[in-house]
TrEMBL record:
One of its GO terms (biological process) is fructose 6-phosphate metabolic process. This is PFKAL protein. The gene is Pfkl_1. One of its GO terms (cellular component) is 6-phosphofructokinase complex. Pathway: Carbohydrate degradation; glycolysis; D-glyceraldehyde 3-phosphate and glycerone phosphate from D-glucose: step 3/4. Signal peptide: none annotated. One of its GO terms (molecular function) is 6-phosphofructokinase activity. Keywords: Cytoplasm, Glycolysis, Kinase, Magnesium, Metal-binding, Transferase. It comes from the Eukaryota. Coiled coil: none annotated. InterPro entries: ATP_PFK (IPR022953), Phosphofructokinase_dom (IPR000023), PKF_sf (IPR035966). Residues 1-184 form the Phosphofructokinase domain.
Length: 197
């Protein structure tokens, strides 16, 4: 469950083995769970996360996420030494345990379907999202043609129109809105004229 799992601990932290990862390759990456974690945005939440990691002897994290997840990882890394000192001071861990876990190694991977990270061709999740969008468009297109109707499809992407643009190109969409290029005044009449044709 992402940082929520780190903060809550318990059964959220478990060792992966061949049995636990069998038959998941065809599933989306969120099979391991994903959650927004308000607690991790506070020092107290990060302190609990540090305690849970130390308890399990974990000093390496692979953080897959977007801006929030990777920013959180950077803050966690920068505070790590101070968090351990606080745990020692509060008597939650010994000085020896703090020394054994003194270094936190983090690898950050951009996992964002938006494909909005500079310096990478395609972020983790983008290809899967495009595949799902095209499956839906294929299904809707048949219905639209048989009923002679116009369908509107909204895709995810927040401030980035990559998914909309690529799926629109691939499906031959008649009209497309993307945040990078807001429509000009009078677009409603132009769109109606185009669709009427």
């Amino acid at each position: 469950q992402g940082y929520e799992g780190l903060v809550e601990g318990g059964d959220n932290i478990k060792q992966a083995n061949w049995l636990s990862v069998s038959n998941i390759i065809q599933l989306g990456g969120t099979v391991i769970g994903s959650a927004r974690c308000k607690a991790f945005t506070t020092r107290g939440g990060r302190l609990r996360a540090a305690r849970n990691l130390v308890e399990h002897g974990i000093t390496n994290l692979c953080v897959i996420g977007g801006d929030g997840s990777l920013t959180g990882a950077d803050i966690f890394r920068s505070e790590w030494g101070g968090l351990l000192e606080e745990l020692v001071r509060d008597g939650q861990i010994s000085e020896e345990v703090a020394q054994e876990n003194s270094r936190l190694n983090i690898v950050g991977l951009v996992g964002s379907i938006d494909n909005d990270f500079c310096g990478t061709d395609m972020t983790i999740g983008t290809d899967s999202a495009l595949h799902r969008i095209m499956e839906v468009i294929d299904a809707i297109t048949t219905t639209a043609q048989s009923h002679q109707r116009t369908f509107v499809l909204e895709v995810m992407g927040r401030h980035c129109g990559y998914l909309a643009l690529v799926s629109g190109l691939a499906s031959g969409a008649d009209w497309l809105f993307i945040p990078e290029s807001p429509p000009e005044d009078g677009w409603e009449d132009l769109m109606c004229e185009r669709l009427g044709e």
